Amino acid sequence: MAKFTVSINEAWCKGCGLCIAICPKKVLEFNERVKSEPVRMDDCIGCHQCENICPDLAVTVKEAKLDA
């Protein structure tokens, strides 16, 4: 189960690929619209590098809510 959630605001994402390039776990990839998309959420370690490097503030990393 994913410990973190990564969300991309596609309206703000310009497809620069910085978040994809910096992710140490390769969580993100381009989708068919050439926008970033989380494809391996279970691999996310919550380092926030993708969120911090995004020039358009399109990436959000949050701790996942675990069901009890």
Automatic annotation (TrEMBL):
Pfam families: Fer4_7. Keywords: 4Fe-4S, Iron, Iron-sulfur, Metal-binding. It comes from the Bacteria. Residues 4-33, 35-64 form the 4Fe-4S ferredoxin-type domain. Transmembrane segments: none annotated. One of its GO terms (molecular function) is metal ion binding. PROSITE patterns: 4FE4S_FER_1, 4FE4S_FER_2. PANTHER family: ADENYLYLSULFATE REDUCTASE, BETA SUBUNIT, BLR5484 PROTEIN. This is 4Fe-4S ferredoxin-type domain-containing protein. It comes from Acetomicrobium mobile (strain ATCC BAA-54 / DSM 13181 / JCM 12221 / NGA) (Anaerobaculum mobile). The lineage of its organism: Bacteria, Thermotogati, Synergistota, Synergistia, Synergistales.
